[in-house]
């Protein structure tokens, strides 16, 4: 007798707002903040650690707050917000006593970037703004008490990022160049001339860059992939160019880096392999890491520390349950459970995520993750190929609402870190150069074939699904390899690489050379980019399509979806098109997410035969 299927997990639980998430301890260690809904909109709540006196302090009523932090003065919560997904982020400060919220950057058509806050300068902040030139961000000093802004570094037009030293002074910048190379410049003080310190050629550029200055300001920590395959953590002496290697792995780039907030010494480094692996460099925290590792089996990260460095907030990611948060006391070495991000998930049986590897047709080793439905039947399953965005990003192990959704509905979910994905060293990254729509896609195809050969996937029932680059991959699947897939779902995916590159946001100007190096240059390679664009192969689509788009998307404009939808209409190709007028690059508002996933679930059930929540 076969095992009855596990209970259907409601879409509201998978894709609605979390109950609570992103906890941060206050600088004085007495309070904690977290994000939680107020009338279904995420806001910041603040209360006393260990009590139940938490109250909402912000009053967002539209898109919800997703990125916030404590001001070092203990008195303010700072957060960013845009309008309708346009990514013109403004910076807001909420006073915890008066509950009054100030717009600290009240400028139209401008985007704030966060540069640095430091506990030793509690009333100050460094931010970037592109208010003078929409293409680049100048660096500004912000006085939190008065709200006064003063420019501390002018962008000459090619600075992609600023770095401050331990005195909260802008001391380094990274410039980009038309050939795709990067240069690191430093200066002695804010009055001094810039001096070129490092050049990274185009092959090294995506895995390299500054992390922080040392306390004395005489050296700088870098992620550096020169003379190595993977990005290493190094310390560079500014006066004599001497390099000290701090942490490295032959295959995996350096991931998260933990820096002591007072000494500015490196304490621990994470490498994102199949799972997260920490290398502890500071003996003073070795016992803490050992104690934290023993709490439970998930992958952990230190997400917040108080000024005294006594209280840490620790998050644990597991594959078959919600993210869990703990408060950890370094003096007693005791951990106190705070909350689950989505406690309702604990009422359901979730699937496990399994790291997998296979060999691509040209011999390259490809890594990824497989999530199969819970139960006895693990073979000949309908398969969803879920393609990550970026593409200069990667999938990681842990709870993934999409993977759990697919598995719960009866599908195997395959997530592939195709060539061009980050984290696996520069040889693997650079193997994706100019390979959009070809070898990057071949890796996805080879992954599906591997799953079929292993008996995991039913070759007649394979869907391709993704957002951003993943949406492009879904369109490529429908046009370049339509016989492999029975349906495709594209979320905010570009259909024409020429129009994609020509309409990038103005503030991506310093990133344009990377597009030219890694995708192609529309001015000199128009025919090549046409050959890699799904729009020009619409007549090859033989499968049903679902396309979803945000009207305010600054990265992949509405026209990218509209032009391929128009071409499909003209040719009578079966498709559904969903346009969200109040969204950008992805769906921030839970009501929009739920509307999309309801449509996608019905679409997949129709073509793959899985379960569906009415």
UniProtKB/TrEMBL annotation:
Pfam families: Peptidase_S9
Record's keyword annotation contains Secreted: no
InterPro entries hit by this protein: 6-blade_b-propeller_TolB-like, AB_hydrolase_fold, Peptidase_S9_cat, Peptidase_S9A
Gene Ontology MF: a single term: serine-type endopeptidase activity
Keywords: Hydrolase
Keyword Ribosomal protein (UniProt): no
Domain Peptidase S9 prolyl oligopeptidase catalytic: 401-610
GO biological process: proteolysis
Signal peptide: none
UniProt superkingdom: Bacteria
Stated name of the protein: S9 family peptidase
Species name: Ktedonosporobacter rubrisoli
């Amino acid at each position: 007798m076969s095992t009855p299927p596990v209970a259907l997990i409601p879409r509201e639980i998978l894709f609605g707002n979390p109950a609570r998430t992103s906890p941060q301890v206050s600088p004085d260690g007495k309070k904690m903040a977290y994000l939680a809904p107020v009338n279904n909109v995420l806001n910041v709540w603040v209360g006393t650690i260990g009590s139940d006196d938490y109250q909402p302090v912000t009053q967002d009523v539209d898109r919800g707050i997703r990125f916030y932090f404590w001001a070092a003065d203990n008195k303010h919560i700072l957060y960013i917000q845009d309008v309708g997904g346009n990514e013109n982020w403004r910076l807001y400060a909420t006073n915890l006593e008066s509950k009054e919220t100030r717009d600290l950057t009240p400028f139209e058509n401008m985007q704030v970037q966060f540069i640095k806050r430091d506990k030793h300068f509690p009333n100050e902040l460094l931010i970037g703004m592109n208010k003078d030139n929409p293409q680049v961000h100048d660096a500004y000093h912000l006085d939190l008490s008065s709200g006064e802004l003063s420019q501390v570094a002018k962008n000459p037009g090619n600075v992609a990022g600023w770095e401050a030293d331990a005195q909260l002074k802008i001391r380094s910048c990274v410039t980009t160049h038309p050939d795709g190379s990067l240069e690191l410049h430093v200066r002695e003080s804010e009055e001094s001339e810039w001096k070129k310190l490092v050049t990274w050629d185009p092959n090294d550029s995506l895995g390299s860059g500054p992390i922080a200055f040392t306390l004395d300001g005489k050296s700088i920590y870098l992620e550096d992939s020169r003379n190595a395959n993977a990005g290493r953590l190094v310390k560079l002496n500014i006066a004599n160019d001497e390099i000290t290697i701090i942490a490295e792995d032959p295959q995996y780039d350096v991931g998260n880096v933990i820096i002591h907030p007072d000494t500015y010494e490196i304490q621990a480094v994470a490498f994102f392999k199949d799972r997260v692996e920490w290398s502890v460099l500071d003996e003073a925290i070795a016992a803490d890491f050992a104690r934290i590792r023993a709490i439970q089996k998930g992958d952990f990260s230190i997400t917040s520390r108080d000024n005294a460095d006594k209280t840490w907030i620790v998050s644990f990611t597991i594959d078959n349950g919600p993210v869990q948060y703990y408060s950890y006391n370094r003096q007693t070495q005791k951990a106190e459970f705070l909350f689950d991000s989505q406690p309702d998930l604990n009422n359901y049986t979730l699937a496990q995520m399994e790291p997998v590897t296979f060999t691509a047709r040209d011999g390259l080793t490809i890594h990824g993750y497989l999530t199969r439905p819970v139960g006895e039947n693990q073979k000949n399953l309908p398969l969803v190929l879920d393609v990550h965005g970026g593409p200069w990003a990667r999938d990681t192990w842990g709870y993934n609402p999409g993977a759990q959704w697919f598995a719960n509905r009866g599908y195997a979910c395959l997530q592939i870190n195709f060539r061009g994905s980050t984290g696996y060293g520069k040889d693997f990254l650079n193997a994706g150069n100019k390979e959009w729509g070809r070898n990057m896609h071949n890796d996805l195809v080879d992954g599906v074939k591997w799953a079929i050969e292993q008996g995991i996937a039913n070759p007649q029932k394979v869907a391709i699904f993704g957002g951003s680059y993943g949406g492009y991959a879904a369109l490529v699947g429908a046009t370049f390899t339509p016989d492999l897939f029975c349906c495709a779902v594209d979320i905010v995916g570009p259909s024409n690489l020429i129009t994609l590159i020509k309409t990038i946001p103005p503030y991506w100007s310093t990133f344009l050379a990377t597009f030219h190096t890694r995708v192609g240059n529309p001015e000199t390679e128009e025919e090549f980019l046409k050959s890699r664009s799904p729009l020009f192969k619409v007549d090859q689509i033989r499968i049903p399509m679902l396309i979803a788009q945000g009207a305010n998307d600054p990265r992949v404009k509405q026209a990218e979806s509209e032009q391929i939808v128009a071409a499909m209409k003209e040719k009578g190709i079966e498709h559904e098109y969903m346009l969200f007028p109040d969204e950008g690059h992805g769906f921030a508002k839970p009501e929009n997410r739920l509307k999309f996933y309801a449509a996608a679930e019905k679409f997949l059930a129709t073509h793959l035969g899985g379960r569906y929540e009415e």
